[in-house]
């Protein structure tokens, strides 16, 4: 048996009673990302952190450790860590072996939310009827509550429990890059007047200043569009997934309670506790045919 504390936290534990050579106790299956997926997402995530830190550090050297940029850099990193580190709202899979769609008899149910009828779909992988607004993330291989999207840059689902940190991350990062861009432009202007050279002369003499300026300009566009889009979604209480699918095209959005109440609900309502016990004992998943030959590292 393995303790899950060392495993990638994103792996979800599911309990299935079964008999194996490891005993007749209740065991857990893991539904992990493939190693390559974990690595590529991890690399992207490290890239985001590195670019944020290096830009802010390079920028700090220009303005001699300006207090406000350090505070904003810290806010960006804290929110980035929160988005990636907390459970986004994973719905544990059903533990009942018989709960297949054939046993249940229908692949959909209907519920009424604030007077609007919504269809609940059955997830064959998780063996559950998904609650309204949830979706099965193909990358994480879990059903997630209030699914917004899976962010490949951060390597995490953005959903019920981490959406507010994601939005705060976007806004603080946007402020940081606007700040960097503004001071970089000022610095370029100062150097041009000091040395009397043009823009191409600055590019030759101070390539790092030009690189930082162009990088922060691109980041402002990228983060600005995302921050505006997600602020709009927050105001109308929709997820990006619902918006892209035009979910409420033919009917009113039952979750829309007006801008102020929507913002309060999305950003300030108490977070529900995680449904997943990440400290439970776990068995890694491998092919059933390989049960007789489990991975060598299992005995560690
Ligand atoms: Zn599912
Ligand atoms: Zn995901």
Mind sketching the topology for me?
Elements: E1 13-17, E2 26-30, H1 35-62, H2 67-85, E3 90-91, H3 101-104, E4 108-113, E5 116-123, E6 128-129, E7 135-137, E8 142-144, E9 149-151, E10 156-158, H4 163-195, H5 199-205, H6 207-236, H7 240-244, H8 259-268
Antiparallel strand pairs: 1-2, 3-8, 4-5, 5-6, 7-8, 9-10
Helix pairs in contact: 1-2, 1-4, 2-4, 4-6, 5-6
The structure holds zinc ion (ZN) (2 copies).
The site of one zinc ion (ZN) has 5 residues, from loops.
Please give a structural write-up.
The protein has 300 residues and is an alpha+beta fold. It has one domain. Helices cover 45% and strands 13% of the residues. The N and C termini lie close together (9 Å). The N terminus is likely disordered.
Question: TL;DR?
Answer:
With 300 residues, this protein is of the alpha+beta class. The chain is built from 8 helices and 10 strands. Pfam families: DHHC.
Features:
3-stranded antiparallel beta sheet; binds zinc ion; single chain; disordered N terminus; 300 residues; alpha+beta; acyltransferase; 8 helices
